Amino acid sequence: MASLLEDHLFQYSGQGPPPSKDFFQVIVTRNEIILTSWKISVRLDCKGAAPKQQKISHHDFLHQKMLQQEVGAVFGERILEHTKLLCQGKFDFLERLPDDILLKILANLELKDTTQLAQVSQRFREICDCEKFWEQTVRYRCAEFTKDMEGIASAMGWRKMFFTFFHSSSSKEQQ
Q1: What string of pLDDT tens digits covers the 175 residues of the chain?
Q2: 33 near 27, Cβ under 8 Å?
Q3: Radius of gyration of the chain (CA)
Q4: Residue 109, CB half-sphere, CA atoms under 13 Å: how many?
Q5: Residue ranges of the chain assigned to CATH 1.20.1280
Q6: Which CATH code fits 95-174?
């Protein structure tokens, strides 16, 4: 059976905390953590400096508190905790599902449940805010939607279409 896990389990990058302008990246593979840093400076002695890269096993990362503190300081506690969970073999397979499958799952949830799901992670927030999700919502949940309205929805945005037309018409029906 093929593995559900790719070689790269997680990757995150960003600028370090002030006053540093250095750039950092953490990659979690199946076997190791790869930390890379690029020195960003106007000083001549730093110009053209190669990035520093450190590779460490999951086991060693879990036992090196100084390295964990560095990851936490650069990327934040949320990224540190996620990295530690991956090193412990705790994978969130729902987060790894392709968007089209997640959209099919979202189609079966109540809209209020999708608003709660959007608060779980950045990925879920992005998918619950995307145009594909709102197009799916309008098409499947709004019986009054006609083919003539499709052009309007495409022009004004599917989310706006849902809240301006369908949400207001359902409120009138309830009165």
Answers
A1: 344 456 888 899 999 888 888 999 999 999 999 999 998 877 777 777 889 999 999 999 999 999 999 999 999 998 999 899 999 998 877 776 788 999 999 999 999 999 999 998 888 999 999 999 999 999 888 888 888 888 888 889 999 988 887 665 554 444 4
A2: yes
A3: 22
A4: 15
A5: 95-174
A6: 1.20.1280
